[in-house]
Amino acid sequence: MYVPIHSLTKSDICSVLSIAFPQDGGEKRKTYLDRHNNRRLMLLLLNQLIQTPRNERLIKLINDCHPTIQWPNVRKTIIYLRNQTEPYQRQYSPGHIGAYWELRVPMKLTVLNRSRSLINKYCPKGFLPSQLKIYWNYHQIESLTTCNFYNTVADTRARHTLLTWPVNKRKNQGTIDYLTMAIDSALLNVPKGKQAIVLDFADERIPGGNFLEGVYMQEQAILHHSTGYRALLDFKYKMMGSGYFIPEFGVLYVKNVQFFRPTGLLTRFADLIVAACYDLTGARGLYRLPSPHDEADIRSRTFRKFRAIIASAVTNSEKDGSDTYLLLGPIGTGAFNNSMEMIASLFAEVLNNSLMNSDGPIRYAFDKIWFVSPANLDVFKKTFEAY
Predict the structure, then answer these.
(1) Angle between helix 38-50 and 71-82 (nearest 10)
(2) Number of H helices, E strands in the chain
(3) What is the phi/psi pair of residue 278, to 5°?
(4) Predicted confidence (pLDDT) per residue in 325-355, tens digit
(5) Spatial CA neighbour of 360 closest among 169, 79, 97, 229
(6) Are residues 59 and 130 in the same domain?
(7) What residues make up the domain containing 52?
(8) What is the rounded CA–CA span in Å between residue 214 and residue 208?
(9) Are residues 265 and 371 in the same domain?
(10) What is the pLDDT of residues 78-132, one digit of tens each?
């Protein structure tokens, strides 16, 4: 897995350490983090970081956040966890199945079998490394054109696009509209020949959230009608050592996901921004939660996520973005209990201000921006009209 060492901040390192060495919750918290191999992944990542050449800055950040790490014990724990069958897999089959078990275990739900059938038909070998991007934070994205350190496999084309069509020269319509419908239906309204970039309201701990359990929310609506689930599993097995995470202040980005009509016919290709808000109920999630009573902390940390969301879309727009439709929505306002007003306000703040060295509001880097949800979007409309 490519790690942008030059862009990692103390906050990023502390995020990793909070999963690798949970301080609260005791063995119950460890069991929770081991269910989807999250803790193992972070221990592997830390072990990789300390072996990286010229890592003095990283070592200092790690020691600042957690000065008492016993590295021999870390390696022993990694070996132990590697020899365990993923607990989540044991929920579906007692025997060890191995990589991509999610596509092989028997399922009773027709919609899951249909989705897996489409994946096997149209994407049997999965996604290429050039289609799968991990952006840890906004700084990693912003520095693509100014830093010699970047993921040459995944971001060479994006870097070329940014240099050829600089963000401060992009003067598009940036029109904002509100569509009260499901995300898969909204995609059908994107004109042929236009690029679509879709925000996936994801689960930071597990590919697809409760996809295998038959839950049907925004992320599952995307995955039931696309090859997106295979992309998330490719992050897990090709890049993350059979673990999974979405960086606390970043996103996963997937190029050219195939979407289908209910009949199974190919509708179009679209990019996915895979991002997660904090679960303020405390029921799910990987990272230390902001205090539910500290609105400033919640807002500040979520704002950092949103800057990365929009920057990833700018970076991966085709050419100058004049044919790009960006489909957003009320992420985190359902089961995760984030305020609709806060989410709308943060999107308005990010889109109506400069980003990525833009000359004016970053919304004009796109042709159209749609906020999409089956729920009422009046809060978003009023917020943007008042901004």
Answers:
(1) 140
(2) 15, 7
(3) -70, 140
(4) 999 999 999 989 999 999 999 999 999 999 9
(5) 169
(6) no
(7) 1-84
(8) 11
(9) yes
(10) 999 999 999 999 999 888 899 999 999 998 889 899 999 999 999 999 999 999 9
